[in-house]
Amino acid sequence: MPPLIVEAVRLPFLTGSLMPVLVVAAWSWPPPWSGLVLCLLGVGCLHLGANLINDYYDAKGSDPLNLRVTPFSGGSRVIQQGRMSAGTVRLLALGFFAAGLACGLLLALWGRPWVLVLGALGLAIGYFYSATPKALMLHGLGEVAIFFAFGPLVTWGAGYVFTGHFSTAAFMLGLPQAWLISAVLWINQFPDYQADRDSGKRNLVVRLGTSRSRLWYLVLMLLPLPSLVFLVEGLGLIPWLYLGLGFLPLAGKAISLAWRFHDQHDKLIPAQGITITSHLALGGLMVVGLLLGRIW
Fold first, then answer.
1. What's the rounded Cα separation, in Å, for the pair 241 and 250?
2. Structural domains of the chain in order of their starting residue, each with its CATH number
3. End-to-end CA separation in angstroms for the chain
4. In the structure, what pLDDT confidence band is assigned to residue 64 with cuts at 50, 70 and 90?
5. Binning pLDDT at 50, 70 and 90, where does residue 60 land?
6. Span 79-105, mean pLDDT?
């Protein structure tokens, strides 16, 4: 993939959607390898399409007003910098959406027809998160949509692909990481606060203000803990899942930074990075725990 496209699609953020797939692959180990590859490709393409369509619409909304761009928020800026036209970004988005649906069609032909419904739902969330005038992000619904799309929807669908049936356990396995991907979105809205407010984007951080929003950020960062307890004690999944609690030191550091620097975008950058790392660490540790449970 050319470097400019890598930058435009914000490729490093792909871990947000692919890690939940790997968690369910470990839970259903060994997964059908062709199903795993198609699932990763399909989910990844839908995610990249959503990133691109977000840049396309934000280029006409909050991005031109945003003077607090960080490495983790404010979009890819390829349109603002004149390195890619808005039309090209939109065309790429549609191409990735089409590729994601093609993966879904192959999985349907492989014997998993309900993937088409789940994939269409994921595409709709990814598109209407940003697409005006009904954009979810404009009306305080984006956070809920991201929680569902990057958590239970992905794990539930992946569980169906890997096992051939829908499972409550697969759905609930998406909860711990859903809280943290919501925290990623939440903390990334802090530097964007002024631009979002001035452009009419009424997300929850704009509605609450960054001072009150930092309390909800703390809650989002800590909710994986009771979710893991529920998975083990409530659903009877293996206690090795408690390895996932190893993300908590990272969470504590990010919470401390966000609490002190919620209105200072330059000092908030480490908290943004640590939040993403926390999501990755939690998912990786859950994968390790689930695989260890297969051995012992």
1. 18
2. 3-295 (1.10.357.140)
3. 40
4. confident
5. confident
6. 95
